[in-house]
Amino acid sequence: MIVQRVVLNSRPGKNGNPVAENFRMEEVNLPDNITEGQVQVRTLYLSVDPYMRCRMNEDTGTDYLTPWQLSQVVDGGGVGIIEESKHRNLAKGDFVTSFYWPWQTKVILDGNILEKVDPQLVDGHLSYFLGAIGMPGLTSLLGIQEKGHITAGSNQTMVVSGAAGACGSLAGQIGHLLGCSRVVGICGTNEKCLLLTSELGFDAAINYKKENVAEKLRESCPAGVDIYFDNVGGDITDAVISQMNQNSHIILCGQISQYNKDVPYPPPLPPAVEAIRKERSITRERFMVFNYKDRFEPGILQLSQWFKEGKLKIKETVINGLENMGAAFQSLMTGGNIGKQIVCISEEFTL
How far is the C-alpha of 267 from the C-alpha of 116, rounded, in Å? Predict the structure, then answer.
């Protein structure tokens, strides 16, 4: 059987911006037979995420991410349906997900790398398993629970950067759900700002491209900042830290402004900002969601419950077609998405 796949065509270079042309689509022959323990799956949805920028370099700069190889199939978060199974725990028609799903229309996989998912948890929106009811949701929830130190009823203020993205749009809502009295988001367009305040329950939003971030933070966080959910790093982070309170906490989720630069992760703060951080005893520890695997199952159930109760609003930007994976990634890295960026590969399935 002939299937389509996407391979890494070229690397952007350590300090380069990724472009759609870094990827290319090709056809490949899928074996007719699967062996014991394997399954053949049809890909329904694929995820593009900022961390993937690190996988485009020969050296990812982290010990837990392997680089993508030139002319080899690219992989990431995916969800699909089993068409044929020789794995004892998986049957034809099961919906499954993996963090290492090849960018391919159909694929033969070792059943052990797949996790079965229950469509009821997402009311049939299977792509949510790649977003709010998946890794970004867990990253937001566990990051806040582990590193945010929220005490309900103690009038804490949370600031979220990259607030209209996959993690940010959830983090602000979760901050409120766990007891923050004020949540302020920073993002890059007026449309995103409006979405945060009118739909996602943020108390205020700042457009960093149009407004003076330090000035607007002072206005919207009169009592200072207690928790900072950081998705971006760079100048925005420096502005937030300068307004953080004594013994406050930074949740280091990502540093998208730094991913196209050859710097270590997490990038060091400028000396003056680092001095403020030390003086005010602000914690800034790396948060690695994979260190909390024992919390994934209860976390997913909690996120699903909030979604079903209408307490967690889920936003997605969906592009259709495997041929658009590169374009979707380029768009994501320049802020073209609201909520989770998803690519729909095939929609033919019945629940």
Answer: 36
